[in-house]
Amino acid sequence: MGYNIAIDGPAGAGKSTIARLVAKEKGFIYVDTGAMYRALAVYFLDRGIAPEDTCKIAEVCKSAHVSIQYENDVQQVYLNGVNVTGRIREEEVGNMASKSSSIPEVRAQLFKLQRDLAKECDVVMDGRDIGTNILPDANVKIYLTASVETRAKRRYLELEEKGETCNLEEIKKDIEDRDYRDMNRKIAPLKKAEDAVVVDSSDMTIEQVVEKIISLCK
Ligand code: DC
Fold first, then answer.
1. Would 131 disulfide with which of 6, 66, 91, 194, CB 3.0-4.6 Å?
2. Model confidence over 51-86: pLDDT tens digits?
3. Strand, coil or helix: what is 207?
4. Both 138 and 114 in a single domain?
5. CA distances from 92 to 42, 46, 70, 162, 182 (A)
6. Model pLDDT, residue 1
């Protein structure tokens, strides 16, 4: 078993930025599990399947194989051998992933891949159910959160920087909907593991959050 750091939390809490920096500092591999759900979402969207068509998603996901590789330490996600990393950040893909990830067959498809990675390597793995379900024996568990307002503002600035037109209220509503879905689904809902340390990044700098997590690693 590798040394495992599990970071869970709602969308926009800064998990990927923090996890990447912690991994770099520790010399560990960063595993972004959200990217895997997003890759499967690309598969469903490409087949014109509606997020509500759970039976179809459960059926077709068995022929979607996700794998990851690293190029210059950056995770690349492959879907049936094709690199889909460039597509997974689209808004449409995020929305599909948020819905399709509540389907048991979709989660089962990624369970082994995530467990095996943590078995073989020292990892910082982020997602929604890492500390509770995928790596219940992780050495360090973090529940990284921030207020809805902070998360919406961060997303707004990110989109603005990319030159995309956006509306703060719409972003906030989207985040609230996504939180609700992630926290209230029947299977592997987002919740703090009993032994996780809560870190609220609302009033913390990125450096402070990274330092806090590193200080918890023995
Ligand atoms: O972290 P993210 O926004 O890239 O994740 C996209 C969606 O995937 C998110 O809405 C919930 C789902 N997800 C999940 O259910 N379990 C994980 N371990 C990671 C992501």
1. 6
2. 999 999 999 999 999 999 999 889 999 999 999 999
3. helix
4. no
5. 9, 11, 25, 17, 16
6. 78
Q: Is the CB of 37 under 6 A from ligand 1?
A: yes
Closest CA to 73 of 135, 39, 31: 31
Helix (H) or strand (E) holding 38, with range, is helix 33-46
Atom of ligand 1 nearest to the CA of 182: 11
Q: What is the pLDDT of residues 135-158, one digit of tens each?
A: 999 999 999 999 999 999 999 998
Question: What percentage of the chain exceeds 90 in pLDDT?
Answer: 91
Q: Is the CB of 101 under 6 A from ligand 1?
A: yes
> By C-alpha distance, which of 194, 201, 183, 182 is closest to 37?
182
Output the pTM of the full model: 0.94
Distance 26 CA to ligand 1 centre (A): 24
Q: Whose CA is nearest to atom 14 of ligand 1?
A: 128
For tokens 């593991």, what's the residue? 193
SS3 184: helix
Q: Range of 94's domain?
A: 32-121
Residues 37 and 1 in one domain: no
Q: Are residues 51 and 130 in the same domain?
A: no
Q: Is the pLDDT of residue 162 over 90?
A: no
Q: What is the pLDDT of residue 207?
A: 97
